[in-house]
């Protein structure tokens, strides 16, 4: 009969637990193209988009770089699919791996992302904006 020491059993089960934890963590960062490609349009009230900043609305980020000028991009970071969260006058930041993107055109400014954020269509409906789908 092959008996294992207590140390060997703990090492084996600890290795399995670590593998499961790492795999679970990576899947949380995995890209989900359905967030980007199949996102439904969103309606955003203009007064909810701060001048010189922006908001995340569903799968889109809507910015107002200057008064009355609205732009939109996918909120899904092209690096590994996390949603961007922080929006300042100059940049849109992904919290997962610190990629930064321009509020002016969605271009990558820094970080591990290889590409910028994809542009989304913006239609002005008076007091609100219809945002999405992504531009070709």
Automatic annotation (TrEMBL):
Locate the region Disordered. Answer: 30-50
Q: Which Gene3D superfamilies match?
A: Rieske [2Fe-2S] iron-sulphur domain (2.102.10.10)
The highest taxon in the source lineage is: Bacteria
Q: Where is the Rieske domain?
A: 41-131
**Per UniProt, which keywords does this protein have?**
2Fe-2S, Iron, Iron-sulfur, Metal-binding
CDD domains in the record, alphabetically? Rieske
UniProt lists compositionally biased (Basic and acidic residues) regions at 34-50
Q: Name one Pfam family in it.
A: Rieske
The signal peptide, as residue positions, is: none
This protein is called Nitrite reductase/ring-hydroxylating ferredoxin subunit
